Fold this sequence. Notes:
Blueprint: E1 2-7, H1 12-23, E2 27-33, E3 47-50, H2 54-66, E4 71-73, H3 80-91, E5 97-100, H4 106-119, E6 124-131, H5 141-156, E7 176-178, E8 181-187, E9 193-201, E10 204-212, H6 219-228, E11 235-238
Parallel strand pairs: 1-2, 1-3, 3-4, 4-5, 5-11, 6-8
Antiparallel strand pairs: 6-9, 7-8, 9-10
Amino acid sequence: xxxxxxxxxxxxxxxxxxxxxxxxxxxxxxxxxxxxxxxxxxxxxxxxxxxxxxxxxxxxxxxxxxxxxxxxxxxxxxxxxxxxxxxxxxxxxxxxxxxxxxxxxxxxxxxxxxxxxxxxxxxxxxxxxxxxxxxxxxxxxxxxxxxxxxxxxxxxxxxxxxxxxxxxxxxxxxxxxxxxxxxxxxxxxxxxxxxxxxxxxxxxxxxxxxxxxxxxxxxxxxxxxxxxxxxxxxxxxxxxxxxxxxx
Length: 247
């Protein structure tokens, strides 16, 4: 039985994680922690899951790594600089394992993989990500990760900048630039998490879309990460694809 602690337990994702862990026969929901609660009880856990906020997650990671606790992290906002910071902490804790993923939905991971595979064959690529109105960061971590993958695939294929003749535009009309890829963020009540990758070439377009209609879509990936965490190599593992046999 794996004893699991959840940080951000009263949030939308944290609540779903608590329910999923509680329903699993091989996992025990041992500790739940939210803002203002004492983290010390987490020291009894085999694995800690963090779904908090970009402004809180680094503090949680530093504390948990210092306590020797293995972690699964689904909180957004992990730039290369932040990942480097976490890796530095892990260098001082050689027996700790941390899994961070931009998205724990298997469908979303496959969407990112398909987009990267296609990106080298098309002249242009743009991303539209759509989320609920309470999401605090834009673009989403999934969109940023997708843009990074697309950019790397385009570079490997020898493609230059995407064609764009825009000379006059309202501020933000062309979205944000992430590694040379335009990313457009939509925030609306009624949405959960959705993303389209639009690829354009000569006389054709390709659209790759993923929709999470319920937060339950993320739970199989979260539980898989919790179960596999102890078997990962010590240090930082980034991306659920590492547990899905995708290379």
